[in-house]
Design a protein that fits this description.
The structure is a homodimer. By secondary structure, chain A is an alpha+beta fold. Chain A has helices spanning about 10-20, 25-30, 40-50, 75-80, 125-130; strands at about 25, 55-60, 65-70, 85-90, 95-100, 110-120. Chain A has a single domain (about 10-130), classed as Winged helix-like DNA-binding domain superfamily/Winged helix DNA-binding domain (Arc Repressor Mutant, subunit A). The complex binds zinc ion (4 copies). One zinc ion binds next to helix 5 of chain A. Chain A binds a DNA duplex (30 and 30 nucleotides) through helix 3.
Amino acid sequence: MAIIRNTIAKKAVFEIIQLNKTAMSQTEIFAKVNNICDRVTVYRILERLVKEVKIHKIVNINGVINYAPCNSCSHEQHLHHDHLHFSCTTCKKLTCIADNHIELNIPSNYQVAEVFLTVSGICPDCIIMA
Amino acid sequence: MAIIRNTIAKKAVFEIIQLNKTAMSQTEIFAKVNNICDRVTVYRILERLVKEVKIHKIVNINGVINYAPCNSCSHEQHLHHDHLHFSCTTCKKLTCIADNHIELNIPSNYQVAEVFLTVSGICPDCIIMA
DNA sequence: TTTATAAACGCAACAATGTTGCATAATTGT
DNA sequence: ACAATTATGCAACATTGTTGCGTTTATAAA
Ligand SMILES: [Zn+2]
Ligand SMILES: [Zn+2]
Ligand SMILES: [Zn+2]
Ligand SMILES: [Zn+2]
């Protein structure tokens, strides 16, 4: 069952995520929805969008959860979305980088589900500023 | 300057981290120190141990920060500690796995500092249980 | 051993992020 | 239009981490 509804708030949240070049936290997204809904609703919409494989969840190196659209990643790719994330230590922005297939050197008695590859450093924009 | 002191609480925290096979969060560590110090002190001790390169910090896939000893990783390795972390979705335990050197497929205009590689799935212990 | 000094600590208060329960509102298929 | 159920608002709570400040304690020097 579970009929999916396309509400105003949901459309707004999804559009905000899609239009942004970098991943965004719930706090940043809520700041942009201009009070069309409660902050709790944003959390619940994000949950739903993840479940619907329209966005994906990324933990930044500081522990804050960010969300980015699933443009580049297909449905199967998403399940083991092994693309790389770049976390800028200067501007704190988190960016999805093209797929980066890697060889896992891991004992065979571990059952692998998803791979999370995040690289910290300085992004092009911040290098120019420096 | 900055004289490093080896206090009772610090020794206890370090020992707890060393004796545990998997990485631990501040909450888990504080639960084990048996009230020999305040929870804020645990946070501050962890900070210091990271700075002294005795332990390293790992963000779990749920955003919670965990700590593990720097046994296997040498001083240089630590700076770009490119070993792999396994995050069990069943028991929630986070384990350091042997070094896993990878080829980064990343545009040259990004300045890379550290690589964080975390794999989710089911750990050997939980596979046996299932 | 005593003393001086900076490091470490306790406590209370705060801040950020995320979750839950429940009554109400809105969307969709019939 | 109506019923079914999805989605929302609001308040309250939970967890994780931080800050300020006065007090205690470890260490090195006297
Ligand atoms: Zn940047
Ligand atoms: Zn991504
Ligand atoms: Zn497990
Ligand atoms: Zn590790």
